[in-house]
Amino acid sequence: MLLAHAADELAQNLWLSWNLDPLLLLGIMLFAGAYAYAQGPLRSRWGVTEPVESWRVLSFAAGTLILIIALVSPLDALGDTYLFSAHMVQHLLISLICPPLWLLGTPGWMLAPLLRPPGVLRVAGWLTIPVIAFGLFNGDLWLWHAPALYDATLTNETIHIFEHLTFIVFGVLFWWPVLSPVRALPRSGYGFRVLYLFLACQPMVALGALLTFAAAPLYTPYVAAPRIWGLSALEDQQLGGLIMWLPSNIPYVIALSAVFFKWVGEQDRAERIAAGELVEPAALSEMDQADSAEASAASPAQ
Q: Which pTM value belongs to this model?
């Protein structure tokens, strides 16, 4: 009875456990502020005439809000102190949800100046090669879930911050071949993107299955953690494995479906343009022009 009461009290206090670390909050504000500054004063200074679509701003804002939910809200304390499964939700948000929303929300002209310094474009081009980006992201994910390293992130805040940074950086690299807004570092072809996203599901499934079917808890801090919501350490780990196994693949499936249907739509449009049934629209973004050109090349009507 006393244990149940203590667990209930912990659960109630948890909702007050917001992460108000000044460096974290400052970093998020600088990140969002840089985007706003580029959209306004810098855009005018650079003479950019391309309109700033509201959907891009909303996409970037959604990605940043989800980052706040993951790292500032009580979800952070829940995952760090009590539940492995909550930590998996946090990792899902910062590695698979935030990066694609930021890429969708960032126009190419905003990133182009960052690629101008000597050597930057070459390094960025190498890092965004699909095989490299895929390997870095999934290798990093598997590495941090090795018990020794995972336990270290929960006992050393510096290591924990570094882990989250790698999830974000490698997450952006992973999504780049699918959603690149910059013509100098273009998206992969439609067919390759479909295959890329399909293959991306497999490492998550394998790691999720490993965690779900483990015979004993793998992570020491969660074994000693106060139990809340009636979950044992093993049940919590199994739930975390299921989260990685199934919900973590939802972003891939959504993106794969969107790419596939856009591919079909572009090919249909290219065929209709070739047949004289449709006039090519004049106003297309750089990346849409590249996609349209690819569809035209692949069209049997050409």
A: 0.87
Tell me the CA distances in angstroms from 91 to 69, 72, 88, 288, one per residue in order.
12, 13, 5, 31
Buried b (16+ CB within 10 A) or exposed e, 174-200: bbbbbbbbbeebbbbbbeebbebbeeb
- What is the per-residue pLDDT across 128-148, written as a single tens digit (0 to 9) for each? 999 999 999 999 999 999 999
268 φ, ψ (degrees, to nearest 5): -65, -40
Q: First vs last Cα of the chain: how many Å apart?
A: 75
Ramachandran quadrant class, 276 (left: phi over 0; alpha: psi -120 to 50; beta: rest): left
What gap in Å lies between CA 264 and CA 31, rounded to an integer? 36
Taking the CB of residue 34, how many other CB atoms lie within 10 A of it?
A: 12
Task: Count, in order, helices (H) and strands (E) of the chain.
Answer: 17, 0
Domain locations in the chain as residue ranges = 2-298
